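I am writing to request your help with a piece of structural work I have in hand. I am sending you one protein, given as its amino acid sequence and as whole-number tokens for its backbone shapes. Kindly check, if you would, that the fold set down in the tokens agrees with what the sequence suggests. You will find the record immediately after this paragraph:
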Amino acid sequence: MLSLAQSREPELLDERPARQSRSATPADPTLWELYESHRGKVSDKWMLYLSEYERLLAPRRPSVMRMLEIGVQNGGSLEIWARYFPELRRLVGCDINADCARLSFEDARVSVVLGDANTDAVAKRITAHCERFDLVIDDGSHLSGDIVRSFCRYFDHVTDGGLYIVEDLHCSYWHSHEGGLFHPTSPMAFFKRLADVPNHEHWGVSRTRRDSLHLFLQAHGADIDEAVLSRVHSVEFINSMCVIRKDAPSANVLGQRFIAGREEPVVTGLVPLHLKEPIRTDEQFNPWARTKVEREKTLASALEACEQRCATLCEQLAQRECELAQVSATSDRALKTLDITRAQLAEADTQRHALLQSTSWRVTVPLRWLGRQARRARRVPRLLSAVAAQRRGAVQTVRSAARIYRESGFGGVARAAAALEARAAQATTNDAPPYARWVERYDSIDERKRADLRRHLAQLPRQPLISVVMPTYNANPAWLRAAIESVRGQIYPNWELCVADDASTDHRVRKVLDSYAHDVRIKVIYRPENGHISAASNSALTLAEGEWIALLDHDDLLKEDALLWMADAIVRAPEARLFYSDEDKLDASGERFDPYFKPDWNPDLFYSQNMFSHLGLYHAELVRQVGGFQVGMEGAQDYDLVLRCIEHVAPEQIRHVPRVLYHWRAHAESAAGNVDAKPYAQLAGERALNEHFQRRGIQGFIAHSDNGYRAHYALPEVRPLVTLIIPTRNGLSLLRRCIGSIRTRTDYLNFEILVIDNGSDEPEVLDYLDELSSQRDARVLRIDGPFNYSALNNRAVAHAKGELVALLNNDTEVISPDWLSEMVSIALQPGVGAVGARLWYADDTLQHGGVVLGIGGVAGHSHKRLHRQGLGYFGRGSLIQTFSAVTAACLVVRRSTYQAVGGLDEINLKVAFNDVDFCLRLRAAGLRNVWTPYAELYHHESATRGSDEAPEKQQRFAAEVHYMLDRWGDELHCDPAYNPNLTLTTEDFALASPPRLSTPA
């Protein structure tokens, strides 16, 4: 079968006058010759452009020509084009350079318009000279936005059969011109996308041509009609030149099928030859036909949010500059005060000197001596207590005092006594020991504890083989040997160590590895060439025969009982497929520091940081199922491995062992000692996370931030309505500030405000509520009676119109414009219950960073009073994560979800802990509660409720505490978003003393 394609020269079509006024002759000069002989105004073109223009335009020279050139500089090109086209009817040039006003031409067909071609006024002047053009050349501004806007404005004025040519697209790759090699909205990317437009009939999805350009049009403030795009015939790239041909829509489809030859029934089932229309398929469910557009909408939303965030930051910068000026003024005043104080001190010193020389001072010397002796006598009991605390005995203490006297006299003895008192005072006030003391007290293994652990080992019903995988390359020999010895010293015996040397050039590495050849549990493979850590890890995996895989870096250490506790966890949770433990770091002297006591599996925190990491244990079959380590993810290869593994397991198959089992060595070349040591790891982590999102079909993207990663979830194209529920009673200034900040600082527009008035009686408040009631986006619901926060919100939700509801205190004030967009985008994710915000006190210290169960008996706020610049415990004060509960002072949830779990408990929890109880019921229903630091508000806490010190309020609060303890019991002391090694006394993630861990029997 032979298919014939119609071949048409790019001639100008019938809407123009007759084109063949005369034929081209060999005497007509080429464009090259015109440039070489031109002696008029200056013009310059790239050599390649001249060759391509000759190819494109030579067949059109005999035809009538109307032309627009955007960007004429000195005007020389206009003179050359006038000579090149003998049948030229009109040539219009446009340039923004004011000097072009001086240009004049003898040829009456040539006109110059001065101004920006992308303004309506200038475009009107251009089309006044000529409405339609057979050729448009854009050699004007090379900024991305200008190029796209010019095309959208002037392509409609090109005649069918005409050309629109853009020069110098290589500027699309430059940051200075709003571009970049992979910039999503550069002109190069725009015209590449435009190349899809002529194939619209084959897309197979119900999207317009204009839909495919949505991101570009939105980014550059441009627009173009669908009808105009239907006339795009072809898009051709020649280096940095782009040629767009225009033709009637009927000429831009495949049309009928032409057949030549004779049909032979050789194979049955083929498409019959007489079919005249192109085959059309339905691609509505093809992810590759949909993902790009959705991705662009996500990027557009993110870009818009970033621009708004930049505007907010600029406002904050201006505010900080104002504050700095105030501080500077205060500093000047302080310096003046300091000068005055110095003068006063000098005067006082003069008076003191005069006093010392006075007769009365000399006469009272004996009295002052008696006073000093009395004060010293009062120190004796404190010194005796301090001596007793030292447990050194009286004789030894006297001998020490005598030695100090011989060396330093009475002054030395006095200083030693003062130091002894200070140490005693510190010992009595320092209830929270530093980590080194905590380790010594609770996490050290002596012979007695080692015996207990071995008894525990003997009681395990089975001891699975654990393969410890360790790639190495030019490791410090001492650290490598220490890492190997930490495996060999394990209390748990059923292990094997699988080492892959990645072609180390340091001969000492092989010497260390060969020294362990006698230990059959240690397997080593020497790679012939360096392939980096992923390839080396895969080589080590080929040696592994264990049921479980543990990962160990060549410069780190396993704690002596690490594999024992992992085996214990395997036995306790046989259905699990992934385990991870807590970790700490080793300094240069081998001292442990900086422990990371992690939460149980926390998917939102895992998307923010690799909390799995050390020590990680993987079911071997699962690792093989996902293909091991992915080459190309170096630096984040373990992060990527876990991301691929969790796609094949349920959340309950991921278990946390809340013990420090891994010591991460901190040195200059490790991320433990310097987060910037491996910048490529951050980029690899971002790529791994985004690929995971794509595999899971999560609409959105993840970007690296200063302190981890941030997930940006896409909002639906049609934003759901959110009902903002605000209970209030009087407090006009608070309510007005709250609602004013919502209306002026919120970029999410589809919301309604529902104010619940609980008995306001101040006239100005009632007037304001009447005013609110008359506005389109607000309603007021009056509910009189005693304050019952739960009942007020439940009634409000019943009246809400929104798909989502936001519980909001009247004493809050919006800070970040995208607060509601952020919270809604998370609340719409599958499996999410409530979403909480980051709330600040007016002094810019943290009020709410998520709720931790058990603090103070029931619950407390995470990182309370953290400074605005603080990141929190391992960044947890500034990363999206799952918490057991979030505060209802600012909480977003689906209305259907709120009602499904029964709302807030208005019987037992009228004021306190109703949000905690609500979130725990959401968790019991299989949903997770998420806190985001990117939704920020001020919380002027409980400003309209008054004091809780009244006896009836104290009685009510005690009853609510009692109810929570009865209702939730042990769950309040085992928060999966916290850690049993962290305190329940304070809200700062301090160490628990003692930890709430069971010990081996």
In short: The radius of gyration is 39 Å. Confidence is low (pLDDT under 50) at residues 1-24, 422-433. The first helix runs from residue 31 to 37.
